[in-house]
Predict the structure of CBS domain containing protein.
Amino acid sequence: MEKIFNKKIKEIMTKDIIYSSPDEGVIKAFEILLKHKISCLPIVDADKKIMGIITTTDIGYNLIIDKYTIDTKVSDVMTKKVISVNPENTILDAINKMDEFGYSKEIINQLPVVEEDNKLVGIISDGDIIRVLSKSLKK
């Protein structure tokens, strides 16, 4: 089991990332999240450097209570303090961050994977980790 936890994030991360620019409208961003059945959307600049992140839960809740207008931009509502990992980190590093930086009793479900220059190169989710664990238990 220790071998699994020491596996590099780059070996299991999703590399085909769906992301948004900070100028995207919140309603359009919510549509992107729902269309692709994903729960978070990294926000990047023109060089793909991470600037923030938004989640389906955050946007959906605020849309329901009419907190946003048609003109609300992603940059107005994104979380700017993004917890991320490096492709060379291990699965255990990701698990620890997901636990440590979650709010209250929650965990973070996805972590953007960034290179040293803060450029987005992937995303790792709790589902990615569970899939690796499940496959290793079947062997």
User: Anything to note?
Assistant: The chain has a mean pLDDT of 91.
